[in-house]
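Today's session is about reading a structure prediction critically. Students often jump straight to the picture, but the first step is always the sequence itself: look for stretches that repeat, for charged clusters, for runs of hydrophobic residues. Only then move on to the predicted structure, which in these notes is written as discrete structure tokens rather than atom positions. Here is the chain we will use throughout the hour.
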Amino acid sequence: QVSAYAEDAVRYAYRFDGGALEETTSRTMSHTFDREGTHSYSIEVFAYSNSGESISKTSEVTIFRGTQEEEATLVFADEFDYEGSPDFAKWHHQVIGPNNGSWYNDEVQHYTEREENSYVSNGTLKIIAQKEQYTSGGVSKSYTSARLNSKFAFTYGRVEVRAKLPAEGGTWPAIWTLGANINETGNYFGQQYGNVGWPACGEIDIMEQRGWDKINTIAYFHWGNTNTGVYQSEGSETAVPDSTQEFHLYVLEWNSSTMRVLVDDTLVYELANTQDKPYDNPHYILLNIAMGGNLGGEIPPEFTNATMEIDYVRVYQ
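Below is the predicted structure for this chain, in token form.
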């Protein structure tokens, strides 16, 4: 499935590997490449405006099609079909700020394990950021939220998180993973999987959204090069105009050769999993709303609270 976006476009047309032009009013078009093995294909897309103007772009993709599909097994899930606090057997609240009682990236919230900031009801997990004076570890802040870490660590698989994002400015919601070998304060796994810093542990941002842009979502990879130790990052974003009104599926597909982040069936970014990247070690899932900071930006003075709803979290291998 391929997705395109152009400002003021009212219809699109796709041509797959020199075939017939296929028109649609949707941004997304599905196509199946039938050849088994690894092959490269061209994809040409045209975007048309109401006035008849058009632009086009051609890209090349490499597709692997196996001889048979392997059935995936569900290895971790929370359907949030209960009431009250998040399942203690599955989730760890990370509440100790590792940056002298605060959090990095100039964020301005405290995370708590109170039900005021995270609870389950009516089939969904609610993570709630709110404006209130709160003191933790001798540090006072004006906002609270929740940061949940899965107590399940895994290497490779498909992660699915169905979520509806907060609409309020200043909020920085995230669905992401960190290497379980990270030595960050409050990490549930301690030194069970190792003891390295960030970005050597590797980070996969399945979904982030800026506090001033509630139309687009971001997929990004951050890591320390395993050969040189140099920090590197790659990623992209995609338009999800109703991300704060409707639930969408945020997906990571991760194996020994590649990592792909999708929203619903739209590919946002794909990164080769080569030996110079630390993505061959166990990771855990994080769900949180940060306030302000690098991607949260300015918090409106009228802000009171904001909610991210999670319908389910599933990991398949």
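Discussion point for the tutorial: The helical segments are 293-296.
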